[in-house]
Amino acid sequence: MHMKYIEQFQKGYKPPLQEQPDAPGLQKKLDPQPLNNVTADGKLYKASGKLEGKSAIITGGDSGIGLSTAILFALEGADLTLTYTSKEKDEAKVAEEEIKKETNGKRKVQMLEFDLRKEEQCILLIEKHISFHGKLDALVLNHGTQNANTYLPTLPTEQWHNTFDTNIHSFFYICKAAIPHIPPGATINFNASINMAVGHPELIDYTATKGAIIGFMRALSNQIVGEKGIRCNAVAPVLTCAYSPATMSKQSIENFGMTVPMGRAGQPVEIATAFVYLASVDSSDISGQVIHINGGVAIE
């Protein structure tokens, strides 16, 4: 039991955040570290074999929500392929070691460095996963980028294109390559954002891509859930304590987690448990839906 962590789930808890110069920010620089497998009751996550015998791809699995999801998937019995960027090599190594430690080395884990803005890299991701694991049962598209901008005329066109290439075009590339290999009963799940519903004024390009993710997910579900039996869903979180200050304005950092009804930012484990649910048989009658994990903000 880790009762000392209960404070981090209480209203008003605000982790000390420091600015980082550029994205993607590094989780290793955060203090205290975000919680990956300790739940709000202060206990370690208790697995029950929900993903036994499955294999999953989790993009951006080296840190934050992606790492927590990877740890819980592994604890639930899934073998993994995780992606990371060239800047995150050290974090990827730590993530792999942590997953193996948590599962006593029982899970197969493949770590792959990719630039998922490029279609050929996305195709290679699927090929390498199938070659390594032999099958693909769950796809979790979690990677993304954002950079704050407070006035649209000053938003660099290059940033707009990079955000779309990273956050939505890559999702299309990966799904296009993956679907022929995904069997009935398998799942495709997306990490979206509360911002697709509320429209963050500092994140116009990011918000636009998150809205696109939800539209893409719903249309894809309608296309394949009946014919192929592949369920598609999304999670729409608010900021977690793993979110990098490298991509936020000073004002957003100062108000971090304080503007939602629960009065705190979420922990990665609180989003990861939803991805476990959506990838498991527990959610067998759910497709085309969005789970809002946002500290109590009501979404219509």
TrEMBL record:
Pfam families named among the record's database cross-references: adh_short_C2 (PF13561)
InterPro entries: NAD(P)-bd_dom_sf, Sc_DH/Rdtase_CS, SDR_fam
Matches recorded under PROSITE patterns: ADH_SHORT (PS00061)
Region (Disordered): 11-33
GO molecular function: oxidoreductase activity, acting on CH-OH group of donors
Keywords: NADP, Oxidoreductase
Family: Belongs to the short-chain dehydrogenases/reductases (SDR) family.
PANTHER family associated with the record: NADPH-DEPENDENT ALDEHYDE REDUCTASE-LIKE PROTEIN, CHLOROPLASTIC-RELATED (PTHR48107), OXIDOREDUCTASE, SHORT-CHAIN DEHYDROGENASE_REDUCTASE FAMILY (AFU_ORTHOLOGUE AFUA_4G05870) (PTHR48107:SF26)
Protein name according to UniProt: NAD(P)-binding protein
Organism of derivation: Laetiporus sulphureus 93-53
